[in-house]
Amino acid sequence: MKKRKLKILTLTLVTTMLVSVGQSVLAHTRLDIPTMTEGTRAINHLLGHTCGENNAIGTSVVFPDGIDSTILVNGQPHSGPITDFLTNYGNNAQLIFNRAVFDHMDEKTDPNGNVVGFWAGGGPGVPHNLTMATQFRLTAPSIEPASCANSVKVYVSIATICKITGVDQFGVEGVVDLWTHNNLGTPFDRVSAEDDGPAPLTINRDLTKNPLPSSCSAGVDVEVKPSAAQINRDMPIKFEGQQVWPQ
């Protein structure tokens, strides 16, 4: 009986979504508010679509944790920590609990209790012809005053699940849409010639309250990407201590 209940749950895993009545299909899964000013807070949504002709029955979302993430400065690797550019990165996203459509949802946390992603499920799924929006609250971290960062772009990795399978079936059409990096070397990598899968969130410096130091000239642009180890750890969905996706 317990095994049967678990199977039923895995078959109905789905994000907490606000389902629109429109028929349009978005080219990518992206943030409703992709740009924020440092230190501000907003209710945001991940706007996306299902897997072709199949209904969406789940999603998994991962934010770079900043611990072992890849940091680029003007496209070049940076060997220092994320605190070189952001003063309060971590635990910036909070899933909004909403049972209007689906029953189960939860946040994913790191060993320190910081939210690094979320999932939700336990509902009928999202029809393949409808657009969907995953609602959450997002607080933009503050940019380190002593840094030369004009902006920090954080890449959010997303999986839209349409069938519960193992990773060996990820390449089959209609199973899962992976809006992830294409070059990390994980089973969750997006198959694409370009690394354009994740949803970018750009945090802009408030140049009035937090001007660039005079030594910075034009400043720099920073990017933050998750590590392969984090994606392998945080992308799977666990319910009551058991991994239910991938199988």
TrEMBL record:
Instruction: State the superkingdom.
Output: Bacteria
Q: What is the lineage of its organism?
A: Bacteria, Pseudomonadati, Pseudomonadota, Betaproteobacteria, Nitrosomonadales
What keywords appear on the UniProt entry?
Signal
The residues the entry assigns to the signal sequence are 1-27
Designated name of the protein? Uncharacterized protein
